[in-house]
């Protein structure tokens, strides 16, 4: 009965997140920021339209991975004070779990990392992992079909296939041989997969900036993951039996409900804020409530159930290793009953680890373990706010002054 109650509590938590997190679609972001009416619902065009609305040029690019996923990237080649030109240093930014490239522009000019990099003279590329709202295409598989193979991936495949495909495309398109990399959360996990299993990509990275790095997870404090993890095998089996492979997809019903709950003057706006805090840690002064509809516009952006399962496996095992398919399939796939660890000693790119004391998903002790496992760390860099949490790395009011300026300063040194 105890297990049953805990399962119901988990399902209730997931349902509440699904209801309040999808506060609006990208069209509501534009309406909120420009004071206009509803916009068309094409997510890809509207992500680009936000950038144009802020006075920056934007390009949309598609790249197909070796296993058939069609990914969308957005390029900002210049800005109002720094026009596009050939030969600029390239900066590539990768989002976290359930997020999208919109996170890097949603805070607006002078505040968002993408715009700050453009203003500093960089040719900026924003990646989108398979399965999010901008990358829901495959040359064979339909993401919306029942029992489709489209969702048969975790963040392992994002690191092994998606990042190399996007990085290669950006480098070939710009004529550069290496670039600067910044990633948040899953955007760091996938980076360490790429550079450990495909070590030739270390040479294509001038410096990597891991914002809230996630590899080892045994000390995380998020009640969401801690509630989910003990039942990961049962939930994975149940989802497969039900043919449910996508976690927190976009929904018009949740959009309307979230908009009413999360906007200014809404009685339940603090519920929206507290759901975010329960995931990543509490830091009320860094969350701009007025921006909640804009901040949550693309979140959740959709993900595979296996991405959540893989993280829960990492928490349970205390190891940074490949997906655990169970004893029989592990023997077939890996030749051993347990999945292999990722060989982090093969990560030789210069890596700066930026962490927060109050990050409930990337605990300080776990970040320190990661720091000791890679061969060429630039260092460990603490955000000075003692309450800095996991989501402040992308949405924090003072992210520009407490974090992004330091990141750009380090990038400049490694050009």
From TrEMBL:
<dbReference type="InterPro" id="IPR029058">
    <property type="entry name" value="AB_hydrolase_fold"/>
</dbReference>
<keyword id="KW-0325">Glycoprotein</keyword>
<dbReference type="Pfam" id="PF04083">
    <property type="entry name" value="Abhydro_lipase"/>
</dbReference>
<keyword id="KW-0378">Hydrolase</keyword>
<dbReference type="GO" id="GO:0006629">
    <property type="term" value="P:lipid metabolic process"/>
</dbReference>
<protein>
    <recommendedName>
        <fullName>Lipase</fullName>
    </recommendedName>
</protein>
<feature type="domain" description="Partial AB-hydrolase lipase">
    <location>
        <begin position="47"/>
        <end position="106"/>
    </location>
</feature>
<feature type="active site" description="Charge relay system">
    <location>
        <position position="359"/>
    </location>
</feature>
<feature type="signal peptide">
    <location>
        <begin position="1"/>
        <end position="23"/>
    </location>
</feature>
<dbReference type="GO" id="GO:0016042">
    <property type="term" value="P:lipid catabolic process"/>
</dbReference>
<keyword id="KW-0443">Lipid metabolism</keyword>
<dbReference type="InterPro" id="IPR025483">
    <property type="entry name" value="Lipase_euk"/>
</dbReference>
<feature type="active site" description="Nucleophile">
    <location>
        <position position="185"/>
    </location>
</feature>
<keyword id="KW-0732">Signal</keyword>
<dbReference type="GO" id="GO:0016298">
    <property type="term" value="F:lipase activity"/>
</dbReference>
<dbReference type="InterPro" id="IPR006693">
    <property type="entry name" value="AB_hydrolase_lipase"/>
</dbReference>
<comment type="similarity">
    <text>Belongs to the AB hydrolase superfamily. Lipase family.</text>
</comment>
<feature type="active site" description="Charge relay system">
    <location>
        <position position="390"/>
    </location>
</feature>
<keyword id="KW-0442">Lipid degradation</keyword>
């Amino acid at each position: 009965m105890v297990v049953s109650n805990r399962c119901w509590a988990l399902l209730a938590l997931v349902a509440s997140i699904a209801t309040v997190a999808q506060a609006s679609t990208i069209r509501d972001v534009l309406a909120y920021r420009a004071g206009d009416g509803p916009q068309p619902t094409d997510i890809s065009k509207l992500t680009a339209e936000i950038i144009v609305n802020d006075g920056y040029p934007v390009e949309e690019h598609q790249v197909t991975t070796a296993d058939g996923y069609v990914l969308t990237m957005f390029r900002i080649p210049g800005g109002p004070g720094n026009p596009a030109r050939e030969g600029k240093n390239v900066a590539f930014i990768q989002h976290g779990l359930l997020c999208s490239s919109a996170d890097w522009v949603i805070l607006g000019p002078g505040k968002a990392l993408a715009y700050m990099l453009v203003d500093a003279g960089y040719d900026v590329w924003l990646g989108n992992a398979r399965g999010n709202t901008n990358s829901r295409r495959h040359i064979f598989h339909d993401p919306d079909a029942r029992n489709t193979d489209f969702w048969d991936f975790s963040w392992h495949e994002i690191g092994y296939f998606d990042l190399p495909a996007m990085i290669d495309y950006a480098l070939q398109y710009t004529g550069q041989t290496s670039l600067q990399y910044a990633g948040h959360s899953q955007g760091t996990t996938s980076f360490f997969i790429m550079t450990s299993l495909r070590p030739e990509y270390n040479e294509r990275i001038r410096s990597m900036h891991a914002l809230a790095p996630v590899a080892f997870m045994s000390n995380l404090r998020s009640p969401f993951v801690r509630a989910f993890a003990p039942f990961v095998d049962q939930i994975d089996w149940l989802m497969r039996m039900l043919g449910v492979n996508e976690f927190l997809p976009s929904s018009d019903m949740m959009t309307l409900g979230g908009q009413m709950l999360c906007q200014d003057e809404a009685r339940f706006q603090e519920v929206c804020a507290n759901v975010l805090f329960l995931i990543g840690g509490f830091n009320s002064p860094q969350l701009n409530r007025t921006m909640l509809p804009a901040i949550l516009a693309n979140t959740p952006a959709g993900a595979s159930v296996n991405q959540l399962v893989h993280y829960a496996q990492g928490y349970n095992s205390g190891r940074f290793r490949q997906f655990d398919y169970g004893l029989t399939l592990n023997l077939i796939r890996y030749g051993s009953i347990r999945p292999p660890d990722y060989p982090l000693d093969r990560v030789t790119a210069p890596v700066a680890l930026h962490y927060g004391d109050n990050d409930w998903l990337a605990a300080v002790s776990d970040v320190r373990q990661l720091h000791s496992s890679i061969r060429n760390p630039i260092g460990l860099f603490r955000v000075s706010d003692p309450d800095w949490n996991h989501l402040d790395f992308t949405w924090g009011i003072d992210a520009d002054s407490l974090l992004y300026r330091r990141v750009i300063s380090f990038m400049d040194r490694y050009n």
